[in-house]
Amino acid sequence: MILVPGKFLFLATPRTASRSIKEMVRKNCKDTKETLEHHVHPDDIFRKFPEARDVPIFTVVREPYDHALSWFYHAVVRNAPQRENTRDFLTFLRTMFISWYFSDRLNVYAEVATHFLPYQAGVVSAYETMTGHAFEGQAPVIGLRPRTKPVSKMLTSFTERAVRQRFPQDIELWQTLLTE
What we know:
Layout lengths: L1 E3 L3 E4 L6 H11 L4 E2 L10 H4 L8 E5 L2 H14 L8 H11 L18 E4 L4 H9 L19 H4 L2 H10 L1 H12 L1
Parallel strand pairs: 2-4, 4-5
Antiparallel strand pairs: 1-2, 1-3
């Protein structure tokens, strides 16, 4: 979480390039305030930064299927590459997902944020939307690792249904963002 006093607060939604966005804000905005934790529990936001009640609050929203896959790769596949298969992804969605991470939603700040930035638009777009001016310089490189299987092979009718059942609020938020 990073605050630019009097301007905006950025909430770092897990698995949405939030470290890169925070780096851009930190380097290009004066007088920023940050929490020690990268991801802050939603209940702690205004306790840590009471002045955030008076500024726009931004967070990034990622397409829910891609977001769920990102969590799967982060939590499971990077430590056990042999588990990169549809069956283990389904098991992950049904049992082991992110309920330990503040809530059982992909967009943990959906109830607090006032402005939502689409992940697929990129970090420069997110920065420019929050600050209101063009980014100058070189954007940070997002640490994407090549995957051995195309994402489309992991998204079967079974896994898509599992994501829809598990994260209906996130899918609704994403669809709302697309129609705005």
